[in-house]
Amino acid sequence: MAYSYRRGLRRLWQTKSLTTAIRRLLIRSGQRQLHQLRQNKVFLMNNNRVFLLLLFCVFAASGPVVSGQSGRVPVKTTSNDQTTVRELFEEANTYRKKKYEEFEKKKLPVSDNLRQQAEKEQKQLAARYAAASAVRSNLTSEDIYYLALLYWIAENYAETESSLRKFLAYDDTTAERQQSAKALLAVVLAKQQKPEEAAAVYNGYLKNEPVKSSEKLRINIEIARSFRAAGRLPDALQFALEAFSIARATYEKQASSPAALDIIFDAGLLAFDISSALADEKNLEEISSQLRSVAAAVGNTRLYFLAIDKLLIHKILSGNKSEALTITHSILNSGLPDLTLQGQREDVLRRLRTRERHYKMLLEPAPEIIGIDRWIPGTEIRLSDLKGKVVLLDFWATWCAPCLAAFPHLSEWHREYSRKGLVIIGITRYYGNIYDKPVSKNEELEYLRRFKEQYKLPYDFAVARDQGPHLTFGATALPTAVLIDKKGIVRFVEVGTSESRIEELQEMIVRLLAE
Predict the structure, then answer these.
(1) What is the pTM of this model?
(2) pLDDT, tens digit, for every residue of 6-41?
(3) What are phi and psi of 438, to 5 degrees?
(4) Where are the domains of the chain?
(5) Are 83 and 53 in contact (CB under 8 A)?
(6) Which of 246, 341, 388, 510 is most buried, judged by most C-beta within 10 A?
(7) Using an 8 Å Cβ cutoff, are 262 and 10 in contact?
(8) Is the domain defined by 372-514 classed in CATH 2.60.40.1180?
(9) Are 251 and 264 in contact (CB under 8 A)?
């Protein structure tokens, strides 16, 4: 669903559970640059990776300067043992942040390609430094600790686990570092689909001090995900509910902070999704109610609506559509007394009225796509001819930035799933202008053809005469994705582009292809 693009950065900057050392590290990097990066909506991290890395690396300090040449990773000579493993880690750890600062100084917009390239370079640098460090003789416990963190950045989970276990065998380390190592080990085990081992390490972590709420939260989330991936949903739910409880206890008083609110909702929605898979109606009602309460307390209408929407979608997809529509009408008539401001109530009600069209479409036969003027490349496609296929309708426009952000995923899905039965159709319409300059239909069509080639989009476009198809499918905001199963039934409708929405859509595509 819709999440803030700046979630990861906000968590690092505003969450009280972060250590003083990390805060000082970020402050030293320059508040001005961080503010500018926020404004540009730059992803300073993969949400799990860098948050966890900073969370566990409580002794990290600012690293040495990294070469500013784009696309090149500087190579440090590691044969000189005066360069410690900790220093190598610090350089790898700060690599991406320094690249973003470099882009900012050059006033380069941070595209997905630049972000992915910086992430790739950071992993390569960490892997190189880890390989060079591992062959050194007489490694100390501190060296092994930072070697584990280099492997962690490189996403080499097996070697991260091995190094952490070696480190934990030493008795010359501080209690805090021992606990940080155990916390990271539990996460790494969970990511390797070893949830039982992760749970055992977590139990050992709880028996010692210090125990940090932020570490407990992340461990429970990762173990819950690991059990869910293994199909052990009751076990997954146990850890997910614990994560939600920890998140509320730790961050609810700070919920006016977007970072804290996102943390609570991330944990709550994980517990909700697992409860939904188990058809645990009692938990679903309770989680939705708690999420609404948290959002209402700080007047966040987007997340307040999300808590309602998740529950209604669950009811519809579980065969209780009439109940869901009854609840929808009840909410529309209630006036939402738990929201204090009239503007907040009006915003949620507006969202719900718009979404009601989608609720009614779900589990119904998809209407035919009508009102299309041109197809690009030129072959008309009818939904009635696509029975036996899974169809994704992507409503988009050339001026819609979130639409463009989804293109790499759509192209990837076409390449990966088209041979398995997925058909993607991009639906746009004439807007009569390009960059605010009036154009004719033929000029706009030619622009769309060039646009398709520029973005290397391998699937077909449909260009509508007017808003007809958009209104038919409730695509009043862009982008809107409509997913239709092999029987021609609408199974998924969502608006917007976010990491979680993309993941949810891909999961649904895979599920429908398997039916």
Answers:
(1) 0.79
(2) 344 333 333 333 333 333 333 333 333 333 333 343
(3) -60, 135
(4) 279-361, 372-514
(5) no
(6) 246
(7) yes
(8) no
(9) yes
